[in-house]
Amino acid sequence: MNDLYPAIEPYKLQRLAVDHHHHLHIEEVGNPAGIPALFLHGGPGAGCEPYHRQFFDPDLYRVVLFDQRGSGRSTPHASLQDNTTWDLVADIERIREALKIDKWLLFGGSWGSTLALAYAQAHPERVTGLILRGIFLCRDQEIEWFYQQGASWVFPDYWEDFVAPIPQHERDNLLHAYYRRLTGSDEISRMATAKAWSVWEGRTSSLLTNQSVVGFFSEPHTALSLARIEAHYFVNHAFLRPDQLLKEATQLAGIPGTIVQGRYDLICPMKSAWELHQAWPDSELKIVADAGHSATESGIRSALVEATRHFARLLG
Length: 316
Prior knowledge:
Elements: E1 12-17, E2 23-30, E3 35-40, E4 61-66, H1 85-98, E5 104-109, H2 111-122, E6 127-133, H3 140-147, H4 151-154, H5 156-163, H6 174-182, H7 187-203, H8 211-218, H9 220-235, H10 244-247, E7 257-262, H11 270-279, E8 283-288, H12 298-315
Parallel strand pairs: 3-4, 3-5, 5-6, 6-7, 7-8
Antiparallel strand pairs: 1-2, 2-4
Helix pairs in contact: 1-2, 5-7, 6-9, 7-8, 7-9
Organism: Candidatus Thiodiazotropha endoloripes
Enzyme class: hydrolase
EC number: 3.4.11.5
């Protein structure tokens, strides 16, 4: 079974001002003359983690990672101002141009898969391939499944903690109830709801609950940006038209892709991965039989590393 490459430090760090408000943290790892690849983190709002660098052979790849607007080490932290899907797509183009990269491989999981698809459909001429995990198309039914009713039937114990900060009379629309508190002026309420939102996601991310994943999601800095930015995107339908990413999958024609999907992913159920695969003939769907959503699960890790090896052979 494949596993992650050894831990590695960036060979270059920089900050990029993408407008008058947002400054992005960007890092490059691996071989400066290698195959260009862009890592897109999840959330939105989660930020990059050190292990994200380890999916790629550092001798073969030049990997670019960045914390999206309001996330991780980008500033201002947890900001919702000028923070939309299309602002992020424009940021990716700014980064590509600043780094003088002509085309690159995109690697993204969960929300990272959403953003990768949006960018690839807008700029197909800049994409050499796609490696996507835990497909999230940001459709209303996917949001409803995880934040109103669906996943709650599988995790009623964790769900009880998720709904606890919301009064009974507001629970018919939990997303908007959370959004009001996450964007309100009461700092204590904002942090309490941010932690409840993020812990729900962390607990349900793996087939077997992984305490290190829960710990990352519950850390206050991460919890605040994750919860605020996710809620902001989701109440706005991710700034996408209904079914936009599926309807525009024709833009991916000729772009090879690998989709890695955990069979028991209850954050982003497999139906979306299946539908994307059907709409994108150049894709290969790899179903991991004993995994949920998280990229930390052994079968998911192995499939993702194999995908980067495959693309190194294809693009090298």
